[in-house]
User: Fold Cellulose-binding protein from Microbispora triticiradicis.
Amino acid sequence: MTHDQNGPVSGERRALSRRSVLTTIGAVPVITATSAVLGATEAAAATATVNPSAQRQTIKGFGGMTHAAWAGDLTSAQRDTAFQTGEGKLGFSILRIPVGESQADFGRDLATAKRAVELGVTVFASPWNPPASMIETFTRSGQTNAKRLRYDQYAAYAQHLNSFSTYMKNNGVNLYAISVQNEPDYAHDWTWWTTTEMVKFLRENAGSINTRVMAPESFQYVKSMSDPILNDATALANTDIIGAHLYGTSYSNFPYPLFKQKGAGKELWMTEVYYPNSTDSADTWPQALDVGEHMHRAMVEAEFQAYVWWYIRRSYGPMREDGQLSKRGAIMAQFARFVRPGYVRIDATANPATNVYVSAYRSGNTVVIVAINKNTSAVSQQFSVAGAGSAGVSSWVTDGSRNVAPQAATTMSNGSLTVTLPARSMTTYVTSLSGSSPSATPTVTPTVTPSQSPSESPSQSPSQSPTGGTGAARVAYTMNSWSNGFTASISITNTGSSTINGWTLAFTLPSGQTITSGWNATYSPSSGQVSARNVDYNGTLAPGATVDIGFQASHTGNTSEPTSFTLNGVPCTVV
Assistant:
């Protein structure tokens, strides 16, 4: 995307252009959500049942985009507001940046990307155009100056993407992924791709790209752009992330059955949106609650692993032009500050009452419940957490007068918690399955929240010992380093034909590196030859399934990566 309706930023989209396209393809953008009135007194909702054992997608994070060439870079203070997790912060754990069209443009967003990496944030990049020398013009639906990548330049374009990835890595930013093209099906102002062209590139050229590959980033989650990728085994093998935008996408089009059928081992990300529009102030209330419902449905109905906004700083975005959180930003922070990368969405009653939306997430013994009440009166809501005991509960609320405001602590008793959801509000609850009290404040940066530390007691070990499933496995290791530390994200995919019941990943940390905390596995020892063993909720790894783990570590100058891994003693393929 490029243009919006908010001032003279170079390269922003003409207002009627997107609306015309939406009308042409028959889409009906959802502008606002209507709130029903329950009545003047507090109403009671059905019990919302939370099942920590019923796990869905692993969350990669929430975030937004910087595009210095079009909207100016974030200031130092704004970077910290965007990516830190304390009071008054957005808590974003994903940053999207553009791929420069020439090497002279590669460094435009580097400063913000480097600070994001220092704070443990995942960075990925999307291109709008290849270098000019690789483009040809053609006529498309009456557009006489339409642009496309020359067919004889596909290999050169893959190298261009590699050059950008290498430049960023050499300057301290190890990209998590790179996209083939931003909105190839809405490219009046940039480069068009047909589905045939996209599949051809993925089949023949994407395998040479030196980081994870994302495609197709359709502007409206048009399934005809991504279906051919899922249906082509070679193209799919060279694609790591199916990316999509949600401009005008109806909620009924959020589920993706074909991805669930054929996307094993792949990730599903929502990589750009503003919602419900770009014309109103982000502080318009209660309209900002629409963002909360949109995010809820993206997590629960679409089962996206990531939710990424357009410009981080904009009058209609999560950060106002003065660098402070907007109401839309506060709503996003209700997710982003507490549902951290590596958390897993778990089953919860999604709609226990009219205009009440609930989702839940787990990391180790920590459970996060996000509840939205769009009604004009308060709602009494009971949560029943299966298998839980009694524990303290911390909570934060955003409504017409408060922004992610901490509330008085309460208690869950025998897995039951009854609360009042204020009228037109969003509340995040953090509790523990183990009976201990959660932290009184959200996790501070770096943005990883360990579920267990390397020194956990034996009682925290997996409930099963490794059995069976000794077939091949694939490991992807992504490292983001700063002056004296780094975070490492590790994806383990079972590429064998049998289920792995209990796993241990072994690798050797380079000299001078020491693990200080970890998540989704127990790590021992903290340096040298390390074993990462599953925790109680992720020990089963079906064929084609992927588990995401990671850790934070210090270093003394050596930022090299482990060269080999074994899973249950069997060497892994490293990608």
Notes: The CA atoms of residues 12 and 506 lie 49 Å apart. The domain at 473-574 is CATH 2.60.40.290 (Immunoglobulin-like). The radius of gyration is 23 Å. The chain has three domains: 42-56+343-441, 61-341, 473-574.
